[in-house]
Every structure is written in C-alpha cells, then in structure tokens.
Amino acid sequence: MLKDKIMKPNNTVLLVLAVIWSLIGAGVARAADAKEEKKPQQKAFNNVDVAGFEKLRADKQNVVLDVRTQKEFVAGHIPGAVNIDVNAPDFQEKVSKLDKTRTYLLHCAGGVRSAKACDKMSTLDFPKLYNLEGGFRAWEKAGNKPEK
C-alpha cells in the first residue's frame, strides 16, 4: 500500500509542477523581451554648442531652421533662417517637403522645441539634424547679431 502511494503521482503535485514550469517559461520570455528593449537606440540628432553651430552655418548648403513662432521670428532671427513653427498643426506637412539630402541646423528660443522638432523630423527620415544647445538666446548671448 505504501508502495502504491509513492509510485502514484498526486494531482496536487502535478498541478504545482505545471505552475512552476509555466512561471519559469514566462520568466525566460520576459528576460528575452528585456534584452530587446535594452538595445541602445541610435540618436536621431546631434546637439551642438554655439561655436559648432556657427561652424556648420558657415557651409551655405546647410539650412538654418528656426522652429519658433512667427511672432518670435519677426522680433529677431539668425540671418538666413527659414521659419517653420514646430507647434503649428502643419509642421510635419511643411518639413516633409524639405530636401532630405540637406543638413538642417535647428533652433528655438532655448533648445527644447528644436529638440522636439529634430525628433519629429527624424521620424520622417531626415538623416542630418543638429540642435543648437541653448537656442537663440545662447546664440545671441555669444555676441551674434540677429536679423529683423
């Protein structure tokens, strides 16, 4: 009788083993997913300081893109800049018409909106994007004179 109990599997034991096996499998799957998520993402744009921005701006093939509002742009802007407001509803439509082979130097007032614009443009496959750290204020503070 004792031999029969030892040799005969108990349903509770089988259930516990099945649950443990399922949890182990789920843990392995989650670990594989975590490895996928930890892959470093390639940065969509480069941040540059004022000196780096000016060096890039010296190449007249590069496009200076001011993503501030039209009101901010009219009050003063970097000479030669093109204005497309990043918060305008038609921002993506307008930038999608730009030449993707060109290099774009983006700025706003302080650098936050232009970083947002760089992110949006990178989703549209613009490969050469530079964001001016500190934005227009940093550019002006460095002694540069805006155009009106």
Short synopsis of the structure:
The protein is of the alpha/beta class and 148 residues long.
Report the C-alpha radius of gyration, rounded.
28 Å
Biggest sheet character = 5 strands, parallel
Mean pLDDT, to the nearest integer, reads 86
Q: Name the strands of the widest sheet in spatial order.
A: 1-5-4-2-3
Domain module count: 2
Q: According to CATH, what is the topology of the largest domain?
A: Oxidized Rhodanese, domain 1
Distance between the termini: 100 Å
Q: Tell me, briefly, the overall form.
A: elongated
Helix content: 40-55%
SSE sequence, one letter per element: HHEHEHEHEHEH
What is the helix tally? 7
The CATH superfamily label of the largest domain reads: Rhodanese-like domain
Give the oligomer, counting copies of the same chain as homo and different chains as hetero. single chain
Instruction: Kindly provide the name of the CATH class of the largest domain.
Output: Alpha Beta
Give the beta-strand count.
5
